[in-house]
Amino acid sequence: xxxxxxxxIPILLMSGCLxxxxxxxxxxxxxxxxxxxxxxxxxxWNAHPMSIGNNSLIAFNNxxxxxxxxxxxxxxxxxxxxxxxxxxxIIYNNETVWSIQSNGSITLHTFNMTNxxxxxxxxxxxxxxxxxxDNKPGDLYIAKAEFELIY
Length: 151
Prior knowledge:
By secondary structure, the protein is mostly beta strands.
């Protein structure tokens, strides 16, 4: 009995090596990605019109196709002055490649770009105020962006 066990154990250990085909590996199906979130918001509390601006730097380590999803929520009431607005722009290689302007709504935007690598600048410019004669909140914006680079 002991001789049979000594003979069966090596056969069981080598049984995985007795296949006739190697499993194919396709490197084209491997997908890598970098994901970055950028959230910006501001609410105006001043009675007179005021502007604000912000730049954010987004950096990618690889080259690939960029997918951007932006949820832009803004509220700008009609004050005594001009109605406010928010402008959301993506700047790549010192050139504005995409820009959205809103003066009051909730919108969802998408943007795609190929051969992206390195740094991008997200630029937000807004103008607003708070009409203190009404019971509405001051002008505001909320920008939630998701950046995904597929390579």
